[in-house]
Recover the amino acids of this structure.
């Protein structure tokens, strides 16, 4: 069985997070517990989108669990090869570090076009069994995107696990 992560790209929340942020730590703990639970159930293949925000955080958690579960496979599903020039330096470094920790990278397109993000999401849904949807429960756009993704996944007979979090203090 294969699991994929999809989630919030709330830049404001994720860019301000650190170990002192209780909401961030709560989200990390939820994600670690769910991922360890899936590992204990025998799930060893994980697809990540490498997008900023929750997707990258989930990918980094899976990569960190490789010490305890050395047979875990982490696959980056990249929507396009040529990356935008407007990425900040910190994100670019995390992205490159994450790709080094992945067992494979699947690039779906050469150039950057916005519709390729939905192609990536469809690819992950079509090629996995379980989707973990991480969304900001206070953000309407996040909820709408998670609802759309989960509807598509459920139409395909996939299991969807929701991990809500809140950015509200």
């Amino acid at each position: 069985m294969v699991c994929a992560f999809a989630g919030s790209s709330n830049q404001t929340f994720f860019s301000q997070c650190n170990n002192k942020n209780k909401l961030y730590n709560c989200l990390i703990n939820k994600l670690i517990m769910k991922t360890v639970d899936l590992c204990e159930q025998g799930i060893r293949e994980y697809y990540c989108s490498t997008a900023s925000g929750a997707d990258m955080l989930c990918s980094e958690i899976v990569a960190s669990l490789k010490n305890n579960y050395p047979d875990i496979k982490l696959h980056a599903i990249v929507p396009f090869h040529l990356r935008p020039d407007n990425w900040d330096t910190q994100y670019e470094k995390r992205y490159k570090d994450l790709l080094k920790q992945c067992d494979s990278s699947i690039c779906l397109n050469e150039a950057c076009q916005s519709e390729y993000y939905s192609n990536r999401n469809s690819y992950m849904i079509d090629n996995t069994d379980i989707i973990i949807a991480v969304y900001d429960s206070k953000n309407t756009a996040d909820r709408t995107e998670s609802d759309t993704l989960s509807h598509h996944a459920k139409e395909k007979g996939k299991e969807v696990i929701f991990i809500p979090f809140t950015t509200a203090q």
